[in-house]
């Protein structure tokens, strides 16, 4: 079950972190993985490791999104799976946040997602088959965190987009779903230091941080043919982080 043999998958933001974890799991499931990333050096390295391919991709550039999808279909003949994972998460308090700060996060996280999904739907509609998996977050749709109001807004916006978009393409054999990670041990999180990581672990009932591959396994399921009857939905992957009513509940 959940094999992806013979399928072509484009993973945006696949050079690092969660994107790399998703790409790795899809590869293990048999997919030909194309890494789409603005970081050419790292992206090409991951592609080599997975026996896949690389396309240089800036999701904020609509023309580049179309070119990247065209390159995938020209090289490999089809595009079955899009994992729209590119995202940024700079912190800024409301008092300090500028309009440019806000626009940058929305441009990458929300508009960038729209642009790559829109481009990918063209070959998927022609095939009458496709799986789109969006990397959202628990932050915004479910929880909040000081300094991330612009990030939270972008992640909540992704889910609003997903539900309506899923309705538009359902008749074409295409599903659009999302994964919602909690605290995942990526390079960015590790850079915060052990004290910060300890705080993050304490907030999770399992007292463990997720791995990029944990998110990849959820994405792999949603990308599979077995998930054909699931669309416009989201899966929270957070070790139970959103469950406690208070910190005391974790200690019980």
Question: Can you tell me about this structure?
Answer:
- This protein is an alpha/beta fold and 252 residues long.
- It has a single domain, classed as 3-Layer(aba) Sandwich (Rossmann fold), CATH 3.40.50.
- 47% of the residues lie in helices and 15% in strands.
- The protein has a 7-stranded parallel beta sheet, with helices on both faces.
- Helix 4 links the parallel strand 4 and strand 5.
- The longest helix has 29 residues.
- The model has no long low-confidence stretch (mean pLDDT 96).
- Belongs to the short-chain dehydrogenases/reductases (SDR) family.
- One of its GO terms (molecular function) is 3-oxoacyl-[acyl-carrier-protein] reductase (NADPH) activity.
- This is 3-oxoacyl-ACP reductase FabG.
């Amino acid at each position: 079950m959940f094999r992806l043999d013979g399928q072509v998958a484009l993973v945006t933001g696949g050079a690092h972190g969660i994107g790399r974890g998703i790409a790795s799991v899809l590869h293990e499931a048999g997919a030909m993985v194309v890494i789409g990333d603005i970081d050419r050096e790292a992206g090409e390295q991951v592609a080599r490791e997975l026996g896949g391919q690389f396309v240089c991709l800036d999701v904020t550039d609509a023309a580049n999104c179309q070119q990247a999808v065209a390159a995938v279909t020209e090289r490999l003949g089809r595009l079955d799976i899009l994992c729209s994972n590119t995202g940024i998460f700079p912190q800024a308090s409301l008092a300090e946040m500028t309009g440019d700060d806000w626009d940058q996060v929305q441009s990458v996280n929300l508009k960038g997602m729209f642009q790559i999904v829109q481009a990918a739907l063209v070959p998927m509609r022609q095939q009458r088959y496709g799986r789109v998996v969006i990397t959202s977050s628990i932050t915004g749709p479910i929880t909040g965190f000081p300094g991330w109001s612009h990030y939270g807004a972008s992640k909540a916006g992704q889910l609003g987009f997903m539900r309506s978009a899923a309705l538009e393409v359902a008749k074409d054999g295409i599903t659009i779903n999302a994964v919602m990670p909690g605290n995942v041990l990526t390079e960015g999180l590790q850079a915060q230091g052990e004290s910060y990581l300890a705080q993050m672990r304490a907030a999770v009932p399992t007292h463990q941080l997720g791995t990029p591959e944990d998110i990849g396994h959820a994405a792999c399921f949603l990308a599979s043919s077995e998930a054909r009857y699931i669309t416009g939905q989201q899966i929270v992957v957070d070790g139970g982080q959103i469950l406690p009513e208070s910190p005391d509940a974790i200690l019980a």
